[in-house]
Protein: General L-amino acid-binding periplasmic protein AapJ
Organism: Rhodospirillum centenum
Amino acid sequence: MTLRRLLPPRPGATLRLAAVALALAAGLTAAGGASAQQSTLDQIKQRGVLRCGVNTGLAGFSTPDSQGRWTGLDVDVCKAIAAAALGDAGKVHYAPLSAQQRLTALQSGEVDILSRNTTWSLSRDTQGMNFGPVVYYDGQGFMVPKALGVTSAKQLDGATVCVQTGTTTELNLADYFAANRMSFKPVVIESFDEVVAAFFSGRCDVFTTDGSQLASVRAVSAAAPDDYVILPEIISKEPLAPVVRHGDDQWFDIVKWTVYALLEAEEKGITAANVDEKKKSADPTVQRLLGVQPGMGQSLGLDDAWAYRAIKAVGNYGEVFERNVGKATPLRLERGLNALWTNGGLMYAPPVR
């Protein structure tokens, strides 16, 4: 058997192979970089749908019906953004997320936006997230059975309190009782639905969460809503706002200004019903907002009809509020801090110019 002699490579072959390998590596790196650098808006357009993280079910804010159709204040925010960015309020995939899942789902890219009654806080804002404008100014409160005979949170010393873990609610509860030199026995449960069930089954004297959630739970989950009282004390500031990831200022701007557009529309008397007529307005702000005067859309990377579509889809902020959580709904919530600044509230949009 004859062994073939191994010949040395031809002159220049090694260099050519190395060059090909480098070119291939550079090409793969460039392709990966281009994918990684694709903007959120481009990804959404390419996908054809906005992925919106919402509550698993909170009346007035985000709930699905028997057909899987979602409604609520937070849902309307998603619809408005989809209308502005994609031209169609129906192009939304709703991802129901628990309190424990929500922030991870946003940071991992599972959703494009979190519109899920999430409190804006320093620690969250500095850990890879940007909070848009507040869509509901809330505060933590307490609900008790009327039969308990309690009229103030200052009377809750020694009470058993149901609270959901993984929320700012749990921390606020401890702070409030410590500050008022009272003791309490916590019943800490991970699932919100299980917390609610525990309260109505009598496992605890008190249920604590955001005031809007207390109103929602009482209206929907209580067999006899009038048998339960929401105490007057508000023990925390809970500004609820949509959330996006750090690192994409364009997408952050689109989310911010879509919410601001709904606020500005209310201030200017623009509704879903009259938005077409309002395009004839001589008011320069209205003209800029509705795209009659061009330029605002280009600043966001959208066309000039972005705000018109959002308002046409869901109405102004006042319409969104009243339709979902207002006095004519089971929640019966007053505007309060969520009124426009011109009516004594905190809702205020920067100039559209």
